[in-house]
């Protein structure tokens, strides 16, 4: 039953509500029996307020502040203010900061009746930001002035906002009026070869709170020229109302760098070809020797001498000879890796340092010879010089090294091999060590013989049992063997790598897969349980092929084998070096029922993240750990760790290379329940393998 002069919120809303653009809301008090204020409920709010709250009027009308803004105890926070305005009968103003934003509202609450009040809000965020930015600018100017007088900048670590002064825009060749943000200009302007290093330096400074100091290159947007920059910044720790920052300067040191480069060019580079000279070659060779010894990988030095170059100089002149050498250097330089070095040793002699070829001597010999032949083909094409096309040949001397020798000795060996090549008739490639030459020729012979081995019926698939801990058969692994007509049996260690290097692995791998599946379906299956699984090794190069899944599916369909009885063994390199779609490929085959086993686990560098994310069914403990499980504490610990890891991931684990009962017992005690090795069966031809499974059935 209201009073005749009672306050009418609807009338007030009609007269002023839509005329006020800032936030407005009307509240009615709720009091207890003693007249003490308990809370207040919303009567109305204008659209601006509702927008700020992110709610509709129907959602909030009639509700208390705690109901509208749960979790912030609004009633308790604002109670002193509400009590004050009704006690003093006067308006009261205060400021509110919204959590998670930089918005600040200046609020004013006005009592309009005994139990009704209006609150209005004015956005003063820009004023408070201006005050704050003015203070920051003064600090930034003070610090930067002490450091330098050019290129002042500030980076806020929380907001990741970068602020520049006018000099920074000039250094980057960008007008101040550009709409692009400084951080975008900075990132786009960095030289691509320096980005990774600079980002690392910045992240390190941010994490450690240390000053940032670095040199890098940028691309000036105005001139497109490369500039060299020395950047130095001071780490400024933020306070309670401020974030951590890097405040510093960029100094353009391009002129100084150019002078240094000119001095280095004269000291370490050949002025004609701009290649490393003899001094630089010696330095690079010493670095390569240290790297090879540290990593235990072979590197190679190629000593190249242009054939009959004196005749060219004598007949066409030194200017033409210089032009030919320059073009030779340019053509070869374009084809070497960044990690390698091409240098001019003097006159018509060049050297190439091929770093980190392989830990295997045969492979390193093959790769260095392959590269030398590429250079031969490269220079076979006539050189277009001012006097017309000119054709040349060159003699190559190659030596391989893995530390333990001086740079001078390496150069002498390669030089000796080069002269042997000249003695053999020029335009030849010769290895320094006769044993190396012999190994290379053997590899070439195997590669050539492998071309016809499959069609000639020389490749065989042998099978080695895999058993449960109680000795019952769980499956077998298919292993390729090569019965060479003159060399006898050649192990996979000798020819699989060659097949991969020569591009024959696709044909060979497909033949082995089809043969193993066919033998399982047609010959082995009648004598084994349905749970019998055939493990087939697949090269990482096969997996990397785009059509890998289609090929495997077609081969399974062609042979009619049950996909659930096929297990593909892959190596850790397939995970580490594999394409991004390897996970998708494996899932496609898993959907068919195919299983996957990770072979030689523990010998590579696959991460646990990769292992967890890939659909692997089984881990195989490498034979090297099994062999020493009773002799070496580290091998035993690694084997135990692999078993525990497999169990925690819900994977099966197989120990390969079991030769004694003691080894099997030790691994069984660790929790391994599946085994493979000579203790049970060596790899056998199909007929012999069938005899075993028939007798054990």
UniProtKB/TrEMBL annotation:
<dbReference type="InterPro" id="IPR052155">
    <property type="entry name" value="Biofilm_reg_signaling"/>
</dbReference>
<dbReference type="InterPro" id="IPR000160">
    <property type="entry name" value="GGDEF_dom"/>
</dbReference>
<dbReference type="InterPro" id="IPR035965">
    <property type="entry name" value="PAS-like_dom_sf"/>
</dbReference>
<dbReference type="Pfam" id="PF08447">
    <property type="entry name" value="PAS_3"/>
</dbReference>
<feature type="domain" description="GGDEF">
    <location>
        <begin position="297"/>
        <end position="434"/>
    </location>
</feature>
<dbReference type="InterPro" id="IPR043128">
    <property type="entry name" value="Rev_trsase/Diguanyl_cyclase"/>
</dbReference>
<feature type="domain" description="PAC">
    <location>
        <begin position="212"/>
        <end position="265"/>
    </location>
</feature>
<dbReference type="InterPro" id="IPR000700">
    <property type="entry name" value="PAS-assoc_C"/>
</dbReference>
<dbReference type="GO" id="GO:0003824">
    <property type="term" value="F:catalytic activity"/>
</dbReference>
<dbReference type="InterPro" id="IPR029787">
    <property type="entry name" value="Nucleotide_cyclase"/>
</dbReference>
<protein>
    <submittedName>
        <fullName>EAL domain-containing protein</fullName>
    </submittedName>
</protein>
<dbReference type="InterPro" id="IPR035919">
    <property type="entry name" value="EAL_sf"/>
</dbReference>
<dbReference type="Pfam" id="PF00563">
    <property type="entry name" value="EAL"/>
</dbReference>
<dbReference type="Pfam" id="PF00990">
    <property type="entry name" value="GGDEF"/>
</dbReference>
<dbReference type="InterPro" id="IPR013655">
    <property type="entry name" value="PAS_fold_3"/>
</dbReference>
<feature type="domain" description="EAL">
    <location>
        <begin position="443"/>
        <end position="697"/>
    </location>
</feature>
<dbReference type="InterPro" id="IPR001633">
    <property type="entry name" value="EAL_dom"/>
</dbReference>
């Amino acid at each position: 039953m209201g009073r005749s002069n009672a306050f009418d919120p609807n009338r007030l809303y009609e007269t002023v509500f839509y005329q006020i653009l800032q936030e407005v809301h009307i509240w009615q008090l709720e009091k207890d029996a003693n007249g003490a204020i308990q809370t207040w409920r919303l009567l109305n709010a204008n659209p601006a307020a509702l927008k700020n709250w992110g709610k509709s009027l129907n959602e909030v009308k009639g509700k208390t502040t705690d109901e509208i803004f749960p979790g912030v105890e609004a009633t308790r926070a604002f109670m002193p203010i509400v009590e004050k305005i009704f006690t003093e009968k006067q308006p009261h103003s205060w400021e509110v900061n919204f959590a998670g934003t930089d918005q600040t509202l200046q609020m004013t609450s006005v009592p309009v009746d005994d139990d009704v009040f209006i609150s209005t809000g004015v956005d003063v965020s820009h004023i408070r930001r201006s005050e704050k930015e003015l203070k920051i600018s003064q600090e930034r100017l003070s610090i930067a002035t002490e450091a330098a007088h050019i290129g002042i900048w500030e980076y806020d670590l929380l907001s990741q906002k970068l602020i520049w002064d006018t000099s920074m825009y000039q250094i980057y060749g960008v007008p101040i009026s550009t709409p692009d943000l400084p951080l975008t200009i900075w990132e786009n302007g960095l030289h691509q070869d320096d980005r990774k290093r600079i980002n690392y330096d910045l992240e390190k400074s941010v994490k450690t709170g240390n000053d940032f100091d670095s040199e890098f290159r940028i691309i000036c947007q105005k001139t497109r020229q490369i500039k060299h920059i020395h950047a130095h910044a001071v780490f400024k720790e933020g306070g309670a109302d401020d974030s951590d920052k890097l405040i510093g300067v960029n100094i353009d040191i391009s002129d100084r760098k150019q002078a240094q480069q000119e001095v280095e060019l004269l000291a370490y580079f050949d002025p004609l070809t701009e290649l490393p000279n003899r001094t630089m070659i010696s330095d690079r060779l010493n670095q390569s020797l240290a790297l090879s010894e540290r990593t235990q990988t072979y590197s190679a030095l190629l000593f190249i001498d242009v054939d009959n170059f004196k005749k060219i100089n004598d007949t066409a002149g030194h200017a033409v000879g210089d032009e030919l050498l320059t073009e030779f250097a340019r053509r070869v330089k374009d084809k070497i890796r960044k990690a390698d070095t091409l240098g001019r040793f003097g006159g018509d002699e060049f050297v190439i340092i091929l770093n980190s070829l392989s830990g295997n001597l045969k492979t390193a010999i093959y790769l260095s010879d392959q590269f030398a032949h590429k250079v031969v083909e490269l220079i076979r094409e006539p050189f277009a010089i001012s006097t017309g096309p000119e054709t040349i040949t060159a003699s190559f001397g190659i030596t391989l090294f893995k530390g333990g020798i001086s740079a001078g000795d390496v150069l002498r060996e390669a030089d000796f091999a080069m002269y042997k090549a000249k003695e053999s008739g020029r335009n030849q490639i010769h290895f320094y060590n006769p044993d190396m030459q012999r190994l290379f020729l053997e590899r070439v012979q195997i590669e050539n013989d492998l071309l016809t081995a499959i069609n000639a019926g020389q490749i065989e698939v042998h099978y080695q049992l895999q058993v449960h801990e109680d000795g019952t058969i769980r499956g077998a692994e298919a292993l390729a063997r090569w019965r060479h007509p003159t060399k006898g049996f050649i192990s996979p260690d000798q020819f699989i790598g060659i097949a991969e290097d020569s591009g024959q692995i696709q044909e060979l791998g497909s033949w082995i897969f089809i043969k193993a599946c066919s033998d399982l379906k047609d010959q082995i299956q009648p004598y084994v349980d349905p749970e019998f699984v055939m493990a087939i090794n697949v090269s990482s190069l096969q997996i990397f092929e785009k059509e890998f899944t289609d090929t495997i599916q077609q081969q399974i369909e062609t042979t009619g084998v049950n996909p659930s009885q096929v297990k593909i063994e892959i190596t850790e390199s397939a995970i580490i070096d594999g394409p991004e779609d390897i996970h998708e490929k494996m899932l496609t085959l898993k959907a068919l029922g195919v299983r996957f086993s990770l072979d030689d686990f523990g010998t590579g560098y696959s991460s646990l993240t990769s292992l967890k994310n890939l659909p692997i069914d089984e881990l195989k403990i490498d034979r090297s750990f099994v062999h020493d499980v009773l002799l070496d504490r580290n091998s035993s610990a690694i084997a135990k760790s692999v078993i525990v890891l497999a169990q925690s991931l819900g994977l099966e684990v197989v120990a390969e290379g079991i030769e004694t009962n003691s080894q099997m017992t030790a691994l069984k005690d660790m929790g391994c329940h599946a085994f493979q090795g000579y203790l049970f069966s060596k790899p056998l031809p199909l007929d012999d393998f069938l005899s075993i499974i028939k007798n054990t059935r």
